[in-house]
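Re: that backbone. C-alpha coordinates:
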Protein backbone atom coordinates (compact mmCIF):
# COMPACT_ATOMS: atom_id res chain seq x y z
CA UNK A 1 0.00 0.00 0.00
CA UNK A 2 1.31 3.45 -0.96
CA UNK A 3 1.55 5.75 2.04
CA UNK A 4 0.09 9.20 1.36
CA UNK A 5 1.75 11.94 3.38
CA UNK A 6 -0.24 14.75 4.91
CA UNK A 7 0.59 18.35 4.01
CA UNK A 8 2.38 18.83 7.35
CA UNK A 9 4.45 15.68 6.82
CA UNK A 10 5.26 16.79 3.29
CA UNK A 11 6.33 20.20 4.57
CA UNK A 12 8.67 18.64 7.15
CA UNK A 13 10.16 16.39 4.49
CA UNK A 14 10.76 19.35 2.17
CA UNK A 15 12.38 21.38 4.97
CA UNK A 16 14.72 18.45 5.62
CA UNK A 17 15.66 18.23 1.92
CA UNK A 18 16.12 22.01 1.69
CA UNK A 19 18.50 22.02 4.64
CA UNK A 20 20.53 19.24 3.03
CA UNK A 21 20.42 20.95 -0.39
CA UNK A 22 19.39 17.75 -2.21
CA UNK A 23 17.94 19.05 -5.47
CA UNK A 24 17.13 15.63 -6.98
CA UNK A 25 15.17 14.52 -3.92
CA UNK A 26 13.45 17.90 -3.84
CA UNK A 27 12.38 17.60 -7.48
CA UNK A 28 11.28 14.01 -6.92
CA UNK A 29 8.90 15.21 -4.19
CA UNK A 30 7.50 17.99 -6.37
CA UNK A 31 6.85 15.62 -9.29
CA UNK A 32 4.11 13.98 -7.21
CA UNK A 33 2.42 17.30 -6.43
CA UNK A 34 0.11 19.64 -8.30
CA UNK A 35 1.09 23.35 -8.61
CA UNK A 36 -1.66 24.26 -6.13
CA UNK A 37 -0.25 21.85 -3.53
CA UNK A 38 3.29 23.18 -4.06
CA UNK A 39 1.99 26.72 -3.54
CA UNK A 40 0.26 25.80 -0.27
CA UNK A 41 3.43 24.16 1.02
CA UNK A 42 5.54 27.18 0.00
CA UNK A 43 3.18 29.57 1.80
CA UNK A 44 3.32 27.37 4.91
CA UNK A 45 7.11 27.30 5.04
CA UNK A 46 8.96 29.60 7.44
CA UNK A 47 10.22 32.70 5.60
CA UNK A 48 13.85 31.65 6.04
CA UNK A 49 13.35 28.64 3.73
CA UNK A 50 11.72 30.54 0.84
CA UNK A 51 14.94 31.62 -0.91
CA UNK A 52 16.44 28.12 -0.89
CA UNK A 53 13.10 26.69 -2.07
CA UNK A 54 13.17 29.03 -5.09
CA UNK A 55 16.80 28.22 -5.88
CA UNK A 56 15.89 24.56 -6.35
CA UNK A 57 13.09 25.35 -8.83
CA UNK A 58 13.50 25.93 -12.55
CA UNK A 59 11.98 29.00 -14.21
CA UNK A 60 8.87 27.16 -15.40
CA UNK A 61 8.16 25.83 -11.91
CA UNK A 62 8.59 29.32 -10.44
CA UNK A 63 6.13 30.70 -13.01
CA UNK A 64 3.56 28.05 -12.01
CA UNK A 65 4.20 28.77 -8.33
CA UNK A 66 3.66 32.52 -8.74
CA UNK A 67 0.32 31.92 -10.46
CA UNK A 68 -0.92 29.81 -7.53
CA UNK A 69 0.25 31.74 -4.45
CA UNK A 70 -1.42 34.79 -2.89
CA UNK A 71 -0.51 38.18 -4.37
CA UNK A 72 1.60 39.18 -1.36
CA UNK A 73 3.84 36.15 -2.00
CA UNK A 74 3.91 36.78 -5.76
CA UNK A 75 5.63 40.13 -5.34
CA UNK A 76 8.05 38.75 -2.74
CA UNK A 77 9.07 35.92 -5.08
CA UNK A 78 9.73 38.30 -7.97
CA UNK A 79 11.71 40.53 -5.62
CA UNK A 80 13.99 37.62 -4.66
CA UNK A 81 14.73 36.70 -8.29
CA UNK A 82 16.25 39.91 -9.59
CA UNK A 83 15.26 41.77 -12.78
CA UNK A 84 16.78 39.37 -15.32
CA UNK A 85 15.45 36.10 -13.88
CA UNK A 86 12.10 37.60 -12.90
CA UNK A 87 11.72 38.81 -16.48
CA UNK A 88 12.39 35.29 -17.79
CA UNK A 89 9.86 33.85 -15.32
CA UNK A 90 7.22 36.42 -16.30
CA UNK A 91 7.73 35.49 -19.96
CA UNK A 92 6.53 32.00 -19.02
CA UNK A 93 3.49 33.14 -17.04
CA UNK A 94 0.01 33.40 -18.49
CA UNK A 95 -0.40 36.96 -19.74
CA UNK A 96 -3.74 37.51 -18.03
CA UNK A 97 -2.39 36.31 -14.67
CA UNK A 98 0.62 38.59 -15.06
CA UNK A 99 -1.59 41.57 -15.92
CA UNK A 100 -3.64 40.86 -12.79
CA UNK A 101 -0.47 40.73 -10.71
CA UNK A 102 0.83 44.07 -12.03
CA UNK A 103 -2.42 46.06 -12.02
CA UNK A 104 -2.11 47.32 -8.42
CA UNK A 105 1.55 48.35 -8.66
CA UNK A 106 2.87 51.84 -9.32
CA UNK A 107 3.75 52.76 -12.96
CA UNK A 108 7.44 52.85 -12.03
CA UNK A 109 7.38 49.35 -10.52
CA UNK A 110 5.44 47.99 -13.51
CA UNK A 111 7.98 49.45 -15.92
CA UNK A 112 10.84 48.00 -13.84
CA UNK A 113 9.39 44.48 -13.90
CA UNK A 114 8.42 44.59 -17.58
CA UNK A 115 11.89 45.75 -18.57
CA UNK A 116 13.29 42.29 -17.90
CA UNK A 117 10.79 40.57 -20.20
CA UNK A 118 11.02 39.88 -23.90
CA UNK A 119 9.75 42.89 -25.81
CA UNK A 120 7.01 40.90 -27.53
CA UNK A 121 5.69 39.41 -24.27
CA UNK A 122 5.95 42.76 -22.49
CA UNK A 123 3.91 44.45 -25.22
CA UNK A 124 1.16 41.82 -24.99
CA UNK A 125 0.87 42.30 -21.22
CA UNK A 126 0.72 46.08 -21.61
CA UNK A 127 -2.02 45.75 -24.24
CA UNK A 128 -4.06 43.58 -21.86
CA UNK A 129 -3.64 46.15 -19.09
CA UNK A 130 -4.98 48.87 -21.40
CA UNK A 131 -8.43 47.28 -21.28
CA UNK A 132 -10.75 48.27 -18.42
CA UNK A 133 -10.73 46.04 -15.33
CA UNK A 134 -13.26 43.17 -15.23
CA UNK A 135 -13.63 43.02 -19.02
CA UNK A 136 -12.92 40.20 -21.47
CA UNK A 137 -9.83 42.03 -22.71
CA UNK A 138 -8.39 42.13 -19.21
CA UNK A 139 -8.77 38.38 -18.56
CA UNK A 140 -7.95 37.03 -22.02
CA UNK A 141 -4.77 35.20 -22.97
CA UNK A 142 -2.87 35.10 -26.26
CA UNK A 143 -1.76 31.52 -25.65
CA UNK A 144 -4.01 29.76 -28.14
CA UNK A 145 -3.72 28.18 -31.59
CA UNK A 146 -5.02 30.01 -34.66
CA UNK A 147 -4.82 28.82 -38.25
CA UNK A 148 -5.37 30.44 -41.68
CA UNK A 149 -8.52 29.34 -43.48
CA UNK A 150 -6.53 28.04 -46.47
CA UNK A 151 -4.68 25.45 -44.33
CA UNK A 152 -5.34 21.78 -44.82
CA UNK A 153 -6.15 19.44 -41.95
CA UNK A 154 -2.59 18.06 -42.12
CA UNK A 155 -1.04 21.53 -41.90
CA UNK A 156 -3.31 22.39 -38.99
CA UNK A 157 -2.31 19.25 -37.09
CA UNK A 158 1.37 20.06 -37.65
CA UNK A 159 0.91 23.56 -36.25
CA UNK A 160 -1.08 22.19 -33.34
CA UNK A 161 1.78 19.84 -32.46
CA UNK A 162 4.22 22.75 -32.43
CA UNK A 163 2.12 25.05 -30.25
CA UNK A 164 0.27 22.49 -28.10
CA UNK A 165 2.59 23.04 -25.14
CA UNK A 166 2.38 26.82 -25.52
CA UNK A 167 -1.41 26.96 -25.74
CA UNK A 168 -3.73 27.03 -22.71
CA UNK A 169 -6.20 24.81 -24.57
CA UNK A 170 -6.10 22.71 -27.74
CA UNK A 171 -9.80 21.90 -27.77
CA UNK A 172 -10.48 24.64 -30.31
CA UNK A 173 -8.47 26.07 -33.19
CA UNK A 174 -9.59 29.51 -34.35
CA UNK A 175 -9.62 30.25 -38.05
CA UNK A 176 -8.64 33.68 -39.39
CA UNK A 177 -8.47 35.32 -42.82
CA UNK A 178 -5.66 37.41 -44.29
CA UNK A 179 -6.71 40.42 -42.17
CA UNK A 180 -6.56 38.39 -38.94
CA UNK A 181 -10.35 38.51 -38.66
CA UNK A 182 -12.09 35.59 -37.01
CA UNK A 183 -13.98 33.62 -39.64
CA UNK A 184 -14.42 30.17 -38.13
CA UNK A 185 -13.51 27.55 -35.56
CA UNK A 186 -12.63 23.86 -35.68
CA UNK A 187 -12.34 21.46 -32.78
CA UNK A 188 -9.60 18.95 -32.10
CA UNK A 189 -12.22 16.28 -32.83
CA UNK A 190 -12.85 17.79 -36.29
CA UNK A 191 -9.19 17.34 -37.19
CA UNK A 192 -9.24 13.70 -36.16
CA UNK A 193 -12.33 12.63 -38.11
CA UNK A 194 -11.61 14.47 -41.38
CA UNK A 195 -9.18 13.52 -44.11
CA UNK A 196 -5.82 15.28 -43.82
CA UNK A 197 -6.10 16.71 -47.34
CA UNK A 198 -9.35 18.57 -46.65
CA UNK A 199 -9.24 22.34 -46.34
CA UNK A 200 -10.07 23.99 -43.03
CA UNK A 201 -12.47 26.43 -44.70
CA UNK A 202 -14.54 23.45 -45.85
CA UNK A 203 -14.91 21.83 -42.41
CA UNK A 204 -14.90 24.83 -40.06
CA UNK A 205 -17.93 26.25 -38.26
CA UNK A 206 -18.40 29.74 -39.65
CA UNK A 207 -20.93 30.80 -37.00
CA UNK A 208 -18.49 31.58 -34.21
CA UNK A 209 -19.72 32.71 -30.81
CA UNK A 210 -17.34 35.44 -29.59
CA UNK A 211 -17.25 38.35 -27.16
CA UNK A 212 -16.00 41.91 -27.45
CA UNK A 213 -12.79 42.80 -25.65
CA UNK A 214 -14.83 45.37 -23.69
CA UNK A 215 -17.55 42.91 -22.64
CA UNK A 216 -18.07 42.68 -18.88
CA UNK A 217 -16.50 39.53 -17.43
CA UNK A 218 -19.82 38.46 -15.88
CA UNK A 219 -21.44 38.48 -19.32
CA UNK A 220 -18.52 36.42 -20.65
CA UNK A 221 -19.22 33.91 -17.88
CA UNK A 222 -22.89 33.78 -18.91
CA UNK A 223 -21.98 33.07 -22.55
CA UNK A 224 -19.60 30.25 -21.61
CA UNK A 225 -22.22 28.79 -19.26
CA UNK A 226 -24.93 29.13 -21.90
CA UNK A 227 -23.01 27.27 -24.61
CA UNK A 228 -20.92 24.94 -22.38
CA UNK A 229 -17.68 26.19 -23.96
CA UNK A 230 -14.22 25.45 -22.61
CA UNK A 231 -12.96 28.71 -24.14
CA UNK A 232 -14.36 31.66 -26.05
CA UNK A 233 -12.58 34.00 -28.52
CA UNK A 234 -12.20 37.70 -27.80
CA UNK A 235 -12.41 40.13 -30.73
CA UNK A 236 -12.09 43.83 -31.53
CA UNK A 237 -14.98 45.76 -33.10
CA UNK A 238 -13.78 44.84 -36.59
CA UNK A 239 -13.82 41.14 -35.56
CA UNK A 240 -10.03 40.95 -35.35
CA UNK A 241 -9.05 38.03 -33.12
CA UNK A 242 -7.21 39.23 -29.99
CA UNK A 243 -7.21 36.29 -27.59
CA UNK A 244 -9.36 33.78 -25.75
CA UNK A 245 -10.92 33.46 -22.30
CA UNK A 246 -10.73 29.96 -20.85
CA UNK A 247 -13.20 28.27 -18.52
CA UNK A 248 -10.69 28.04 -15.64
CA UNK A 249 -10.47 31.83 -15.58
CA UNK A 250 -14.27 32.04 -15.65
CA UNK A 251 -14.51 29.74 -12.62
CA UNK A 252 -12.16 32.07 -10.72
CA UNK A 253 -14.32 35.06 -11.74
CA UNK A 254 -17.59 33.39 -10.72
CA UNK A 255 -16.16 32.55 -7.29
CA UNK A 256 -14.78 36.07 -6.87
CA UNK A 257 -18.05 37.72 -7.92
CA UNK A 258 -20.03 35.43 -5.61
CA UNK A 259 -17.76 36.33 -2.69
CA UNK A 260 -18.16 40.04 -3.45
CA UNK A 261 -21.95 39.71 -3.50
CA UNK A 262 -21.92 37.82 -0.21
CA UNK A 263 -19.78 40.59 1.33
CA UNK A 264 -22.25 43.22 0.14
CA UNK A 265 -25.28 41.21 1.23
CA UNK A 266 -23.76 40.93 4.70
CA UNK A 267 -22.97 44.68 4.70
CA UNK A 268 -19.24 44.11 5.25
CA UNK A 269 -18.40 45.96 2.02
CA UNK A 270 -14.88 44.65 1.51
CA UNK A 271 -13.27 41.26 1.85
CA UNK A 272 -13.03 39.90 5.38
CA UNK A 273 -11.53 36.46 5.79
CA UNK A 274 -10.05 34.33 8.58
CA UNK A 275 -6.75 36.23 8.42
CA UNK A 276 -8.20 39.76 8.58
CA UNK A 277 -7.10 41.62 11.72
CA UNK A 278 -9.79 42.59 14.22
CA UNK A 279 -9.41 46.37 13.80
CA UNK A 280 -9.53 46.06 9.99
CA UNK A 281 -12.64 43.86 10.09
CA UNK A 282 -14.32 46.29 12.50
CA UNK A 283 -13.40 49.29 10.33
CA UNK A 284 -14.94 47.66 7.25
CA UNK A 285 -18.16 46.72 9.03
CA UNK A 286 -18.72 49.89 11.04
CA UNK A 287 -19.96 52.33 8.31
CA UNK A 288 -22.95 50.15 7.39
CA UNK A 289 -23.71 49.22 10.99
CA UNK A 290 -23.60 52.85 12.17
CA UNK A 291 -26.01 53.79 9.37
CA UNK A 292 -28.32 50.93 10.33
CA UNK A 293 -28.01 51.96 13.98
CA UNK A 294 -29.52 55.37 13.26
CA UNK A 295 -32.18 53.88 11.00
CA UNK A 296 -32.96 51.40 13.77
CA UNK A 297 -33.68 54.27 16.14
CA UNK A 298 -36.80 54.87 14.08
CA UNK A 299 -38.09 51.51 15.34
CA UNK A 300 -37.69 52.73 18.89
CA UNK A 301 -39.54 55.93 18.05
CA UNK A 302 -42.43 53.92 16.60
CA UNK A 303 -42.69 51.74 19.72
CA UNK A 304 -42.58 54.85 21.90
CA UNK A 305 -45.40 56.39 19.84
CA UNK A 306 -47.61 53.38 20.54
CA UNK A 307 -46.66 53.15 24.22
CA UNK A 308 -50.27 53.62 25.33
CA UNK A 309 -51.47 50.76 23.13
CA UNK A 310 -48.67 48.52 24.38
CA UNK A 311 -49.35 49.34 28.04
CA UNK A 312 -53.04 48.48 27.70
CA UNK A 313 -52.42 45.13 25.98
CA UNK A 314 -49.09 43.72 27.25
CA UNK A 315 -49.56 40.54 25.17
CA UNK A 316 -48.78 42.58 22.06
CA UNK A 317 -45.14 42.83 23.18
CA UNK A 318 -44.80 39.03 23.06
CA UNK A 319 -45.49 38.91 19.29
CA UNK A 320 -43.52 42.04 18.37
CA UNK A 321 -40.07 40.35 17.81
CA UNK A 322 -41.73 37.59 15.79
CA UNK A 323 -43.53 40.05 13.49
CA UNK A 324 -40.36 42.07 12.84
CA UNK A 325 -38.13 39.01 12.50
CA UNK A 326 -40.37 37.16 10.04
CA UNK A 327 -40.70 40.26 7.86
CA UNK A 328 -36.94 40.71 7.72
CA UNK A 329 -36.40 37.03 6.91
CA UNK A 330 -38.76 37.02 3.93
CA UNK A 331 -37.23 40.25 2.61
CA UNK A 332 -33.72 38.80 2.81
CA UNK A 333 -34.84 35.63 1.03
CA UNK A 334 -36.36 37.64 -1.83
CA UNK A 335 -33.24 39.81 -2.02
CA UNK A 336 -31.02 36.74 -2.42
CA UNK A 337 -33.29 35.36 -5.17
CA UNK A 338 -33.26 38.67 -7.10
CA UNK A 339 -29.51 39.27 -6.82
CA UNK A 340 -28.76 35.73 -8.00
CA UNK A 341 -31.26 36.08 -10.86
CA UNK A 342 -29.81 39.39 -12.04
CA UNK A 343 -26.36 37.77 -12.24
CA UNK A 344 -27.44 34.66 -14.13
CA UNK A 345 -30.36 35.88 -16.28
CA UNK A 346 -31.16 38.58 -18.80
CA UNK A 347 -33.82 41.01 -17.61
CA UNK A 348 -36.38 43.09 -19.46
CA UNK A 349 -39.70 44.69 -18.54
CA UNK A 350 -41.59 41.42 -18.99
CA UNK A 351 -39.19 39.42 -16.83
CA UNK A 352 -39.28 42.06 -14.07
CA UNK A 353 -43.10 42.20 -14.13
CA UNK A 354 -43.39 38.42 -13.91
CA UNK A 355 -40.87 38.37 -11.06
CA UNK A 356 -42.76 40.98 -9.02
CA UNK A 357 -46.10 39.21 -9.60
CA UNK A 358 -44.58 35.87 -8.61
CA UNK A 359 -43.04 37.29 -5.43
CA UNK A 360 -46.37 38.93 -4.59
CA UNK A 361 -48.02 35.50 -4.86
CA UNK A 362 -45.22 33.99 -2.77
CA UNK A 363 -45.78 36.68 -0.12
CA UNK A 364 -49.53 35.98 -0.11
CA UNK A 365 -49.09 32.22 0.27
CA UNK A 366 -46.45 32.55 3.00
CA UNK A 367 -48.34 35.35 4.72
CA UNK A 368 -51.72 33.58 4.81
CA UNK A 369 -50.18 30.29 5.96
CA UNK A 370 -48.13 31.88 8.76
CA UNK A 371 -50.94 34.33 9.60
CA UNK A 372 -53.49 31.55 10.18
CA UNK A 373 -50.99 29.58 12.25
CA UNK A 374 -50.07 32.50 14.54
CA UNK A 375 -53.75 33.54 14.87
CA UNK A 376 -54.58 30.11 16.28
CA UNK A 377 -51.60 30.26 18.65
CA UNK A 378 -52.56 33.76 19.89
CA UNK A 379 -56.18 32.73 20.42
CA UNK A 380 -55.31 29.52 22.29
CA UNK A 381 -52.77 31.36 24.46
CA UNK A 382 -54.90 34.39 25.42
CA UNK A 383 -58.42 33.15 24.66
CA UNK A 384 -59.03 36.37 22.72
CA UNK A 385 -60.04 35.94 19.04
CA UNK A 386 -59.45 39.65 18.37
CA UNK A 387 -55.80 39.31 19.45
CA UNK A 388 -55.45 36.40 17.04
CA UNK A 389 -57.01 38.53 14.28
CA UNK A 390 -54.66 41.46 14.98
CA UNK A 391 -51.50 39.36 15.09
CA UNK A 392 -52.49 37.18 12.12
CA UNK A 393 -53.58 40.01 9.81
CA UNK A 394 -50.47 42.02 10.76
CA UNK A 395 -48.24 39.08 9.86
CA UNK A 396 -50.01 38.58 6.51
CA UNK A 397 -49.55 42.23 5.53
CA UNK A 398 -45.96 42.52 6.77
CA UNK A 399 -44.83 39.32 5.02
CA UNK A 400 -46.30 40.53 1.74
CA UNK A 401 -44.60 43.93 2.13
CA UNK A 402 -41.33 42.32 3.24
CA UNK A 403 -41.27 40.03 0.21
CA UNK A 404 -42.02 42.90 -2.19
CA UNK A 405 -39.41 45.17 -0.55
CA UNK A 406 -36.74 42.48 -0.94
CA UNK A 407 -37.72 42.19 -4.61
CA UNK A 408 -38.30 45.77 -5.69
CA UNK A 409 -35.41 47.56 -3.92
CA UNK A 410 -32.60 45.64 -5.70
CA UNK A 411 -34.48 45.97 -9.03
CA UNK A 412 -34.64 49.75 -8.60
CA UNK A 413 -30.92 49.90 -7.81
CA UNK A 414 -30.18 47.72 -10.84
CA UNK A 415 -32.26 50.05 -13.02
CA UNK A 416 -30.03 52.97 -11.96
CA UNK A 417 -26.84 50.97 -12.66
CA UNK A 418 -26.10 50.49 -8.96
CA UNK A 419 -24.92 47.05 -7.86
CA UNK A 420 -28.10 45.47 -6.42
CA UNK A 421 -26.06 43.58 -3.85
CA UNK A 422 -25.57 46.84 -1.94
CA UNK A 423 -29.23 46.49 -0.95
CA UNK A 424 -27.80 44.36 1.82
CA UNK A 425 -29.65 41.98 4.07
CA UNK A 426 -29.28 44.20 7.15
CA UNK A 427 -30.65 47.23 5.27
CA UNK A 428 -33.70 45.32 4.00
CA UNK A 429 -34.24 43.85 7.46
CA UNK A 430 -34.06 47.26 9.16
CA UNK A 431 -36.48 48.88 6.73
CA UNK A 432 -38.87 45.96 7.08
CA UNK A 433 -38.67 46.24 10.87
CA UNK A 434 -39.94 49.82 10.64
CA UNK A 435 -42.78 48.92 8.27
CA UNK A 436 -43.81 45.85 10.25
CA UNK A 437 -44.00 47.76 13.54
CA UNK A 438 -46.07 50.53 11.94
CA UNK A 439 -48.53 47.98 10.55
CA UNK A 440 -48.65 45.87 13.71
CA UNK A 441 -49.29 48.71 16.15
CA UNK A 442 -51.53 50.52 13.67
CA UNK A 443 -53.89 47.53 13.45
CA UNK A 444 -53.66 46.94 17.20
CA UNK A 445 -54.63 50.57 17.90
CA UNK A 446 -57.66 50.21 15.61
CA UNK A 447 -58.91 47.25 17.68
CA UNK A 448 -57.66 48.46 21.09
CA UNK A 449 -61.16 48.60 22.56
CA UNK A 450 -61.82 44.92 21.79
CA UNK A 451 -58.35 43.79 22.88
CA UNK A 452 -58.76 44.98 26.49
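Recovered sequence:
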Amino acid sequence: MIKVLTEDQMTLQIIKVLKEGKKKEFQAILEELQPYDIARIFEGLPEKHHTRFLLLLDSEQIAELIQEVEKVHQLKILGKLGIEKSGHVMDLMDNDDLASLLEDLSPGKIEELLSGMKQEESKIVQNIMNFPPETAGRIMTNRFVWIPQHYSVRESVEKLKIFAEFSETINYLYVIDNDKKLVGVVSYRDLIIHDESEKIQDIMYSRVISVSAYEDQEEVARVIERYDFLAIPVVEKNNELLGIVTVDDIIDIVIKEANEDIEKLSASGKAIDFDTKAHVAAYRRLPWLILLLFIGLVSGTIISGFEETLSKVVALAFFMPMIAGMTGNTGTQSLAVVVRGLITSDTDKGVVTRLIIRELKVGLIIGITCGILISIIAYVWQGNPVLGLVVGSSLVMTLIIGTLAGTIIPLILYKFNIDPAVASGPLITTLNDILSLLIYFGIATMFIAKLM
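The chain has three domains: 7-134, 146-255, 278-451. The mean pLDDT is 85.
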